[in-house]
Amino acid sequence: MSHVKAGGSAKNIHNNAGRRLGVKRFGGQTVNTGEIIVRQTGSTKVAGPGTFISKNFTIHAAVDGVVSFTKVRKGHFTGKTVPRTQVSVVNAK
Known about the structure:
Structural class: mainly beta
Strand content: 35-45%
Largest sheet: 4 strands, antiparallel
Helix content: under 10%
Number of domains: 1
Distance between the termini: 85 Å
Shape: elongated
CATH class: Mainly Beta
Radius of gyration: 21 Å
Oligomer: single chain
Number of strands: 8
């Protein structure tokens, strides 16, 4: 009888560094132009006034000011609306 020795199971080979996603500046905090407010995968939070969204869905401050988060309903092409959090920056003077 021919046999093949049992192959060992590989463990601990999928240890990757975390992606450091999440909210970096919270509501009420002051930000400068260009600062990162939210790092995310996909558009779970949407950019509002005073912010812009980059290629990898990171939301940055477009102006100096104070961060605020509000709940909005975002419409899809099909007419369905889904709840999203809108990130905005208002000038603090």
